[in-house]
Amino acid sequence: MKGNLLKLLFTFVLMLCINYNGFAQADQPWKWVHPTPQGNTLRYVKTFNATTYYALGYAGTFIKTTNSGSNWFITHKVFGQQLDNQWFIYSGWFFDQNTGLACGESGKVSRTTNGGTSWDTISTGVTATLYGMHFINTTTGFMCTSTSGDILKTTNAGLNWTAISTGSSTSLYNIYAYDVNHIYATSSSANLRYTTNGGTNWLTVSTGSSSTLYDVCFKDVNTGWVCGTSTAIRVTTNGGTNWTQTSTGLPSTTFYELSYITSVNTLYASGNAIYAFKSTDNGSTWDSVQIAANQVYISTQYSLDRNGSSMVTGGAFGLINTSTNSGTNWVAHNYLGYAGTLNDVWCENMNGKVIAVGSVAPVPIIISSNGGMNWNFTASTNVTFTCYGIKMLTSNTGYVCGSTSMLAKTTNGGLNWDTTKIYPTSTTLYGIDFINTSTGWTSGSTGRIFKTTDSGANWVLQTSGVTNTLYSIDMFDANTGWFVGTTGSIRKTTDGGTTWTAQTPGTTSSLYDVQMFDANTGYLCGLSGNVRKTTNGGTDWDTVTVPYTSSLYALSFINVNTGFIAGSSGLTYRTSNGGSSWEVLNTAGSTTNGIYARGYDSAYAVASSAGVFKLHNLLVGGITWNNEIPESYRLEQNFPNPFNPVTTIKFAIPKTAKVTLKVYDILGREVDILFNDIEMNAGTVSYKYDASNLASGIYFYSLIANNNKIDTKKMVLVK
Question: Looking at the predicted structure, is the pLDDT value of residue 390 above 70?
């Protein structure tokens, strides 16, 4: 089951049934089915013409179309292969349709020369987050860092970077270079750092408010603007020495980006969910540009770009809108019908009914009748509480449980829901289970468990023996069942819940889900990578070692050997041998709260940022981890070798270590990151590496553990 998760609240505009196809999610085992074409926040957009648009965003995302949005190419591997780390991209820069850069979390920079098909990692020498990037020509550019107060400079189109100190340790949120001498960087407390001599000397000036400043741009060496929180758009006409507030007619919105388009003498400000704002008189007056008129659901717009009459905006949940007539009309390309946290999911089959439940944004239950191709966002308008768990007894009859002691029941496959408050005191209900159409249980906060024997018409409070939160309950039959919760709580009943007996799971960490296959055998999962298995009814819970120590919130097994576990940073594990080995299959989305498996290669998962993911007929996996502990570190020769284009790389680690596995070309340039300082438990790893994005040639791969290089091997790619 799932833990406490923050609700995301957004303005509701429209609830519709939507359908979107025509996108290729490169090398992704899990496919986005909501939102489409993908749901990671976009922080940088670029328009080249009326048909070609690029965008960069969270979770290493790059997305592009070359046919006005009819088809999209999507990859989530800008910063390397995704495992349990979801690296955020905050900015980027494209010189043309082939060559571009991305920067973001932990000092990461990647560069592409083939239109985003593949990306090469660039070493910057810093580990601070890189929030902003700006180039003055095709070779010279700058980035700003989050903690050191430094900026980075390149003179060879981003291949190499050198640090320039601004003399301050404050976080810098964005950077603008008018030329090689005039460079400006925004920070908190409305302060601006700037230089007029290429960084030899730096000045700090207050722009006159207490706002955090997120962007800065200049029209010429005298006229420029800053923007940030509290509608803080301010203008200077003397090169940054003095600043004044622009029109107060702007709405109370945080503005994240300013774009001055010289060709049309227009300044644009982005941040509002519905409008961009433009000014042709240096900010004295502003006109609104309604960018979200055709958007099903709206949220923050972070970035805007214009080239001639073609425009593109990007924002939260992967929102992307384009215009070909200077902003008069817009086309919405991201179809987002729900913007809250999704907590649990159920499916009838992989091409049939899917029901996902979550927070009230705008409704807590969304339904698909065709495997996620279309979604109904209107069926549960009368359900006004956050839903945490779902239990369907048949394709028609089922229950969801949630906040304020509320339950909802459907008898027609989710098209209608009847709600019931089962307890006068407000109790958050997280877990729900039924053994037949009449008898069921639900568990929640303050140790409360309720039982019904009349199909949910009446509920009786049982005595659990604990007062902490209970996240999941699983009943094998009318008498035997288990619940799990915070502080390692686990209890068993053999009399239908009249009494509950404490068991010892071997951890005091929170436990979020439990699943039993019979009266003896089952699994549980929880914080810090805790997975336990019992074969004697819970008398003993044996540790099942998984690859990483990331928190795990949900599990779903189709039998005692085959199933999935899901958790933080979009992480999912899959096993077919009872947990002796695991494949890591990341959704490339946010934290995975719920998962429902129909088979070894068939499952749905839901995430904390409105994401619904589908895994179906997977052909090539990522990694397979086995808990056989070796005597020493070992990196094996890849096989086959030569290869085209998939090969298997195996390595072994004798103890828990932070592991890095990188690929280099014959010149020693880093071309791919397969593992990036990921904490792994002891075991052996088999990685199926797909090098289809690389050219034929000789490459080297190196294993690094706890910052110590273990070994390097050569491999040959022949296409």
Answer: yes
Q: Which of 350, 348, 299, 289 is nearest to 320 (CA)?
A: 299
Residue closest to 692 by CA, chosen among 663, 662, 719, 653: 719
- Model confidence band, residue 654 (pLDDT cutoffs 50, 70, 90): very high
Query: What does the alpha-carbon distance between residue 62 and residue 53 come to, in Å, rounded to a whole number?
Result: 11
Nearest-CA neighbor of 207 among 241, 179, 239, 237?
241
Radius of gyration of the chain (CA): 27
Taking the chain, what is the end-to-end CA distance rounded to the nearest angstrom? 46
Q: How many other CB atoms are there within 10 angstroms of residue 222's CB atom?
A: 13
Residue 10 lies inside a defined structural domain of this protein? no
β-partners of residue 419 are: 408
Residue 356, domain member (yes or no):
yes
Q: Kindly report the CA angle at 357 between 562 and 349, in degrees rounded to 5?
A: 45
Residue 703 CA to residue 80 CA, distance in Å, equals: 15
pTM of the model: 0.84
Q: Which of these, 132, 128, 301, 306, lies nearest to 215 by C-alpha position? A: 132
Same domain, residue pair 654 and 685:
yes
- Same domain membership, residue 636 and residue 613: no
Q: Are residues 676 and 611 in the same domain?
A: no
pLDDT of residue 604: 97
Question: Do residues 570 and 588 touch, judged by C-beta distance below 8 A?
Answer: yes
Which one has a higher pLDDT value, 690 or 481?
A: 481
Residue 606 belongs to domain spanning: 342-621
Helix (H, G, I), strand (E, B) or coil at 186: strand
Strands 23-25 and 72-75: parallel
C-alpha pair distances (Å), 435 with each of 49, 88, 217, 408, 615: 59, 43, 63, 17, 28
Report the C-alpha gap between 430 and 427 in whole angstroms: 9
Neighbours of 109 (CB within 10 A): 27
Q: How far apart are CA 598 and CA 579, in angstroms?
A: 18
CA pair distance 107, 9, nearest whole angstrom = 31
pLDDT at position 167 is 86
Q: How far apart are CA 643 and CA 347, in angstroms?
A: 39
**Nearest-angstrom CA–CA distance, 367 and 348:** 11
Q: What is the pLDDT of residues 346-376, one digit of tens each?
A: 999 888 999 999 999 889 999 999 999 999 9
- Are 563 and 668 part of one and the same domain? no
579, 651: one domain: no
d(CA 49, CA 502): 65
| Residue 640 in tokens | 């086959």
Let me know whether 381 and 424 are in one domain. Answer: yes
Residues 6+ apart with CB under 8 A from 470: 430, 431, 443, 444, 445, 447, 448, 449, 464, 483, 484, 485, 489
> How far is residue 711 from each of residues 502, 505, 651, 701, measured CA to CA in Å?
48, 39, 10, 8
pLDDT for the residue 85: 52
Query: Of 105, 264, 244, nearest to 677 (Cα)?
Result: 105
Helix (H) or strand (E) holding 134: strand 130-135
Torsional sign, CA 524, 525, 526, 528: positive
The one-character DSSP state at 232 is -
| Complete edge-to-edge strand list for the sheet that includes strand 42-47 | 23-25, 72-75, 61-65, 53-57, 42-47
Whether 48 shows a pLDDT value over 50: the answer reads yes
Q: Token pair of 359, please?
A: 């927070």
Residue type at 94? F
- 356: domain CATH number is 2.130.10.10
Please report, for the domain that includes residue 705, its CATH number: 2.60.40.1930
Name the β-bridge partners of 276: 289
DSSP 519: S
Angle at 290 between CA 134 and CA 266, to 5 degrees: 45
The answer on 689 and 563 residing in a single domain is: no
